[in-house]
Model the fold of this input.
Amino acid sequence: MKNSLKIVVFFALFVLCINGIAQSSSTFELRYFTSDTKANGETDFKGETEWFDTEERVLFLNEYADFASRFFDNSGLDKKIVTDQEISHLLGEVKPQPGTNIRKTVWLSGWKTYGYKEGQDIQKEKELERWSKTPGAQIENGKLKLNNTTIKREFDPLTWRFKLKFNVISGDDKSQLILQLKENDKTVVSLTLNNKDFKKDASNLIIEGDMTQKRFNCFIDDKLIRNFTLMDDTSAVILHSA
Done:
């Protein structure tokens, strides 16, 4: 610790709200005073112009947390400033933007925006044709529809962590999805999912894996169905096809 005069002073600042309403809120500042001239001017808590050392920073934060817990009557410093219900209620009170009476207003809510360059649509069509050439696969309304078929795709080798994410729209009650991630003939991850595993409209499926730990997680609509599960073939070191 530096050999200097150390005085901790707390300031409670009271702020009046606008609109003439007699409401007030309060906060405080925690300031550290010293006779050391090196602390003159603006100083960083941690940075180029820092004056505190690590021990003093920890002491300052402890003092701040101790005073704040008493000042806000929150011993665990874990109370939310506002609840989700309060936020939703406040947003519901916001009046919608008024429309025009003469000009026609086209609201953009629900629209999607895309960057475009010349020839991009043709390139996109060619990419989709590659899927449609597989027997039992077709593109319908922007979705890939599979019927009793197997699709294999290769990608750049993955040797560490990976994440696979896509949406699934299930078919009839007997429909089934078999997904395998491989290294050549070695099956790294194998999942067999049935119609009952998915929602009727669309479900989000996520697979997170770690090739170094030989483990993976699987989520369907944020529900964890595989938790740090051991991979099928732990001798595999890369992943490059599905």
